[in-house]
Design goal:
This protein has 323 residues and is mainly alpha-helical. The protein contains 15 helices and two strands. It has a two-stranded antiparallel sheet. Helix 3 packs across helix 15. The protein is globular. The chain starts with a helix and ends with a helix.
Length: 323
């Protein structure tokens, strides 16, 4: 009888708590206050983001509708969408866009492969693993300008460069890598910088993988290659996809390496979209067309990034529901 009374009391208390929660949700004053209490600390960050990003973008939209060259006083006039038409008909713009895609794709693919290899090595226990991990992360902590200068002067210099010194026993001497292979030199510097990022992301995925699954596979007689292909790689897919998307988004804005190493040359062989916009705005002083290029790049980047991130989030939520 005592147990029955205790169960009834517990049920009555649960029902009372449920009714109280419903009344609290139905009370607009409490819910509104609770909402402001939770979102209030985020308002400064939101206001800062709007001031720093959205307001300048609105000004860029306005400038893109003007014919405005700084070297011609009084040339500022409204031309509507003419700047966008001129940009679409600019063959150099499309060549630079192709360069941008090639640099991004090559850098991301090589960085992901190298990051996967390094992550698999660091996932194993060995003496000095912490020191090795710290050394491998270091390139991502170096500022892009310093890294670009290091690759241009210390690594790829035709006379004193370390790359030529290492390859000299094979008959390779005094090659000006930056001038002869400008795009490859930039990709090399970017891969050196972004491989640690991919490695950390994939390593986090490896350490989140349940070890009992691998042990069960080994007990069943699966080889290391089979375990990697059937278990490890599918588990790491979403982490690799996330690293690929984030790396591509950031690499679209690459400017430091190109400016410090090649200046976009020879010609436009190594120029990308941010550097070409810089040339048009601050060397050609054509503010209208530079703003139109910036708007086009932002729109395409947002469309591609939104599509890719949506696929990735579906992958994460799908795996969580399956689990």
């Amino acid at each position: 009888m005592t147990t029955t009374e205790a169960q009834a009391g517990a049920q009555a208390a649960a029902e009372a708590e449920h009714v109280a929660r419903i009344k609290q949700k139905q009370d607009p004053g409490v819910s509104r206050a609770e909402g402001w209490r939770r979102r209030g600390p985020l308002l400064p960050a939101l206001i800062f983001m709007i001031v720093v990003t959205q307001i300048p973008f609105l000004f860029t939209l306005y400038y893109s509708t003007l014919s405005w060259n700084l070297v011609r006083p009084g040339s500022r006039e409204f031309v509507g969408l003419q700047n966008y038409l001129d940009v679409i008909g600019d063959s150099t713009f499309w060549q630079v866009a192709i360069n941008t895609v090639l640099i991004i794709v090559a850098t991301v693919l090589i960085s992901v492969v190298l990051g996967l290899i390094l992550a698999l090595l660091l996932d194993r226990a060995f003496l000095g693993r912490g020191v090795v991990r710290t050394l491998l992360i270091t390139p991502f902590l170096v500022t892009p300008v310093a890294g670009a200068l290091m690759w241009k002067t210390a690594m790829l210099d035709p006379v004193f460069g370390i790359v030529n010194w290492v390859l000299s026993p094979f008959g390779v001497e005094h090659i000006d890598w930056v001038s002869s292979f400008p795009r490859a030199a930039i990709i090399l510097a970017l891969v050196w910088q972004w491989t640690p990022f991919m490695m950390l992301l994939i390593l986090a995925g490896l350490q989140s993988m349940p070890r009992d699954i691998l042990e069960a596979g080994r007990v069943d007689g699966a080889t290391s290659l089979q375990l990697f292909r059937e278990l490890t790689l599918p588990h790491l897919r979403r982490f690799i996809e996330l690293g690929t998307v984030l790396g591509a988004i950031y690499l679209v804005n690459t400017f430091d390496q190109i400016y410090m190493m090649t200046q976009g040359g020879p010609g436009t062989a190594s120029a990308n979209l941010p550097f070409y916009i810089y040339q048009r705005a601050f060397l050609g002083f054509d503010i209208g067309q530079a703003a139109a290029m910036g708007v086009i790049v932002v729109i395409f980047t947002m469309i591609i990034a939104s599509f890719a991130l949506r696929l990735i989030f579906k992958s994460f939520t799908g795996n969580e529901e399956a689990a």
